[in-house]
Structures are given as structure tokens and as C-alpha cells.
Amino acid sequence: MPHSHPLTRREVAQLAAAGFVGGSVSGWFGQFAEQAAAAEKLRKPKSCILLWMDGGPSHIDTFDPKPDAVADVHGGIKAIETAVSGIQITEKLPEFAKLMSHAAILRGMSTDEADHGRARLYMHTGYKPGFGGVTYPPLGSIVSSELGEADFPLPNFVTTGVPLNKYDFLTSPGYLGPRHQGLVHADPSRVLDNLHPSAATADFDGRANVLARLNQSFAGTYQAPAAEAHRTTFARAVQLMRSPGNRAFDLSQEPAESRAAYGDSRFGQGCLLARRLVEAGVKFVEVYLANWDTHEKKSADEIQATMPALDRGMSALITDLKQRGLLDDTLVVWMGEFGRTPRINRNGGRDHYAAAWSSVLIGGGIRGGQVIGATDATGSRVIERPISVTDFMASLCRVLGIDYEKQINTPIGRPIRIVNNGGKPIEELFS
Predict the structure, then answer these.
(1) Residue 12: domain span
(2) Does one domain contain both 28 and 151?
(3) Residue 284 pairs with which residues in a beta bridge?
(4) Which of 31, 131, 323, 419 has the most other CB atoms within 10 Å of its CB?
(5) How far from 188 is each of 138, 199, 264, 273, CA to CA, in Å?
(6) Could you tell me the pTM of the whole model?
């Protein structure tokens, strides 16, 4: 009996009542019961942790190694087996290799933006910069808008590890408005700046209440976007300061053994903060790691030296989420804005390359332990299952329980799709 989508529990029960399901429970009924359970798990709204590799990581040096290619392709980096037979990744990620059963490597990523600024926006929003004259929200703001609770005292979108004010445009909510602005926490090892009122500030609550009334009156009188943005930002800041939940930002609350598992790098501590925030109910956390812009041997060597910290932090995050029962409800995304050239250049590095590269999805209820897509023998082009930006974004939305075809009205009443036309989820993630 062909069926293009997994059956629901109700459909399975109806089939059983009609007499279509009989005999061995481990047979026909068991098969569709498992499908129904998997579908139910995927429908549940989730949280997302984006591990952002700024600068564009080489697919060949990470998740699409080419050990049998010539030296100026593989660069001397060896491939190792993972916990899933037949899947190899770079030798630089031995701890992650043990967790491959939870991950899907997307080796068919193929885009057409190889400029850092444009590609960063494209991969965060799913829309090319300037398309339609609209400022589009990044994925974090979309998740905040679609899955965040309106009265949740913590921000629903947090970015950590990125220098303050460096990439404000990646946390700007676009047409979704200031309520879905990302909070930037530059150094995860420190308590969030200005989280508590100064000891010298007398009657903080009274002053805050007076200012809130003034802001509300001003915004109501002038009804200017800037006034509303100021009022919203102030109200959210005060709500965060008053909430006991803000302890999630304080890593000193974490047992020493747990902190040590993530390593003492900023990235590792950012991964720990992401787990604490998701556990506290935050819907989207982005953890930033630079600098993958490896045009020269010096920069290539420097990023290779940071790979153990990447491996440790990312692997500790996945293990911790699994042990706490959070992995099925948390999608972890590893990606950058594009890849690097298959061949090492004359300066000993790799240049920008968007035609073929890799990203990785972990947890969130997806089917792990697989590779989707393939590149040729030198990693130069996608030869199997190409994945566009819109396909990628549609897939993330589906995993997270967001309707990727939904249209949202901008403040001027213009309807905009969450994912641009043509995007289709990667079905291999769900089957």
C-alpha cells in the first residue's frame, strides 16, 4: 500500500479497526506505528542551536574529506571512520565521529553567493540581500516569532561568542519588529553585562515603572517605529533583569565537571551556555566561531589549531543534550556561509567556494547516521542530491515545527513567505 507520508497514530488505529492490520505486531502494524511515532516527534515545536562557523569552513577539511585525491586537494588531512560504517570525516573531529548516529551530513550544499557579507545574510535569512527591497529576518528572529512565548521573560533569540556590534545585521529582526531582536552576549564565560541593577541605583523598580509609563505614553502619542522599538527594548530588558531565569546566563552556576567537559575555549563555553539557555526555554541560540577565512597557510594553520576546541565543545553539547533528554527536542545546526576551494592555492590556503560544500544537522528528531548528497572526487561539484538555500531553510523550518510556506504581513501589509518560493524540505531527513 503506497503512502507518501508517515501515517499518524489515528490512521494506524483506523487501519487496524478496518482489518487491514493483522498478524504479527512486529510486521505491518509495527512498521507504521514506528512511522507514526517518528512523525509525531517531528511535529512537536523545538529549539535550535546554530553553531556558526564564520568565514566559510572547507568541506574537504571537515565533513567531506578526499583522502584519495592529490595532495593539493586533501592537504595532508586524513579521514577517519565514524560510529556509522562507511561514513568518514576529518581526523580533526574524533569525538564527533563517535556521535555520527545522531547526525546527517549534507554534502550537497550548493549556492551562488561567495561574498562573505551577502552569503552570511543569505544563509541566515534564506533570501538574497536586497531581494524585493525588504530587510529579511534571520532564522533566530523567525524562530522567536513562530515558536517563542510572548510573555517568556528571557530573550527567545541569543547570539554568543560574536564581538559586540560586529554583525548587528545578523540579529536585526527585519520586518518582524524589535520584540524578535537577537540579544548579543559577546563572552559566554562572563555574566551578561548590566544584568543586575547597580548597588548605587536606589528604588530601581520604582524608577523603571515610571520610565515605562513615559515610554508608553510617548510611543502612543507619536506612534513612530523608533519610539515603539525603544519601548519594547526597554520593557524586555527590565523583564530579563527581574526574572530568576536569568541565572541561565551565569556559567558559574554549572558544576565544575560539566564546565570542564566543554573545554575552556570561548566556543566551548558558548556551547555550554546554549545548552543552559535551551534548557531554560530559550528557542534559538547561535554560537559563533571564527575565523574560517583561510586564504593563506597561516590562517589555515590557525583554524586547524582550533579544531580540537570545536570537536570538544560540539561533542560535549550533543552528549549533554542526549543525556538530559533534550536532543530530540533540539536541532543543532553546524554551518558557515559557504565552503572553500577544493584545491589549495599558491599561498597555502583555500579561497571562497559556494558551488559545493557541507553543513551538518544533529538531533531534532531527524534521521541521523546518514550522508545526504555527494561531491565528485575532488569536491569540486555536487554530483548527487544538490541542496539549495531554500531547500535547506525549508528543512530547518519543518524540523522545528514551523510552517515554511506561511506568509507574514510586514508592517506595511506586504505578505512575505517565511521561506522563498521553491524551497522543499529534504525528505531524507524525515524518512
Answers:
(1) 1-43
(2) no
(3) 48, 157
(4) 419
(5) 21, 23, 11, 6
(6) 0.84
